[in-house]
Every structure is written in structure tokens, then in C-alpha cells.
Amino acid sequence: MADLSSKNLKLAIQKEGRLTEETLEFLRKAGLEFESYKQRLFSTCKNFPLEIIYLRDDDIPDYVASGTVDLGVVGQNILYEERPKVKKLLNLRFGSCSLIIAVPKESAVSQIKDLKGKTIATTYPLSVKYFFKKNKIAVNVVRIKGSVEIAPALGVAQAIADLTSTGSTLALNDLRILTKIYESEAVLVANRKILSQVSKKIILEKLLTRFKAVLSAKNYKYVMMNAPQNLLPKIRKIVPGLKSPTISPLAKQGWITIQVVVKEDVFWQTIEKLKSLGVSSIIVLPIEKTII
Ligand code: AMP
Q: What is the pLDDT of residue 195?
């Protein structure tokens, strides 16, 4: 049974929605052990002083700002829209999406200035109004809570502004993207006061170390490969690695096996260069955590 009056840190996450699965997976990767199932309102971590509270995602910023909970995981989009007084601590690298403006495929609108005097339906009215104000284009913005994509077909609006990740819902509704307002992903936010409470800050720092270890592991892959020993100087230039690579001799005369950590963003270029050098049997493994 969770004890919400305890000194444990309280972290609010989305109860049911797009961010839920990935948030739970992220917390588990950080080594936190807890039970969770759909009907649950909160969980106590078994191995860390943390309570997880399941809430509607658009309520999370207010709960964090007021100090009802100490921390929250929400989409950056909600921070842009609600501008709550919370401190953003980390980008969590999941829940990626963009707030875009779209018009019906057959619309004559080809650039944002063509939207002057037109109506735009959205769940994010403040973000949209701010965008058009910055671009000095006068538009009408109507707030719709769900199924925004259908607004043009219903004649409610000539354009929409909505979140998208794959674009498939837009395509299904015969809409085409005109422009992007911003990109978003899940973020960790904190109540501003807990940062000055020593006991909470100590727990928070431990939690952040775990979260950062999961995040930095995402940036690297562990690569094992076999190569003739004389290629080693060239391989070293291609993959300098986190520190120095681990090298061991193979039973085959003049051959070695090399284990090295490669950065995700240059991963494919690195593998292609290695292959063209004549490196063989390349095995790639994900890294769970890096604590440097
Ligand atoms: P939902 O569960 O639909 O309320 O979405 C929760 C959050 O998921 C949003 O606030 C966004 O931060 C994020 N998200 C990621 N991809 C999408 C997407 N394609 N559409 C809507 N929200 C998305």
C-alpha cells in the first residue's frame, strides 16, 4: 500500500495514454521496481524512496506546480501550452511528436500567410495563437478537445493545428502539412521548491543519476568485431570509442577481436567504414546503462 504522506518523492505519470507505456518502461530501465496495472492510482517503489502517481497528463503540470507531487513526466507540448511554474529537469527522448498546421489536400492554401482571416481548429489554442501572432498573421483559433482532424470536413475550420508523429492520421483524413509549430517529447519536470529541500534533493539527485544513465546508454551501441591485426591502427581512427577499445587475440593466426562502444548518431557511417576496411563478423548489442 502506498504511503502518500511519506517522505518519499512523488512522481506523477500519465495514467492512460500514449506516454504511459514508454514512461513505465523508462522507469523500469532505471532499475525501479514497482507493480503497475490499469486500475492502480499509485505504486510504491520497492527499492527506491519513490511513489508513482497515475494522473491525466494535462493535470500533471498543475499538481507539480502546486507541490501536490514533486515530479512529473509530461509532453513538452503541455508545458508550451499551459506554461506552468515548474522546472524542466530532463528531456526523456520518447513520446516524440510535432505540433503542425495542416489543411485539406485540395485546399488552395500553400503557405501560412494564406491562412489570414481563416479559422484554425486545435487542442492547443495558446500555442497556435502565439505562433500566428509571432508571424503577424490574423487568424481565428477555435478550441476543440478531440478529433481535431475532422474539423475541416465538418466546415468548422479551414485548417487545423494538431500533434502528429507518423502523419498517418493526417493522411487518413486527407490533410496535408503546411508547417511545423514546434517539436515535442516527454520531459521530467519538478516542483521548484523541492530543489531547495535538502532531504528531497538528495533523493532527486540519485534518481537523476539513474535517469541520465538510461538516457546516455541510448546514445551508444556496443560493437564486437573480428579483424586482421594489421588493420588495428585504421580501425582505431574510425572508432575511437568511449575510452580505449578492448582487444583480444583470436585462435586464427594474425586476427583479433575488438569490443568498442560506438555513438548512435554515427553508428551506420562507422559500420559502413569498418566493412569497407575488411572487418568481419560485426555484432551489435544495445547498452542498458552507462555510468561514466
Ligand atoms: P494522449 O495519450 O493522446 O493524450 O497523448 C499524450 C501525449 O503523447 C501528448 O501530450 C504528446 O506529448 C504525446 N504524443 C506523442 N505522439 C503523439 C501523437 N502522434 N499525437 C498526440 N500526442 C502525441
A: 84
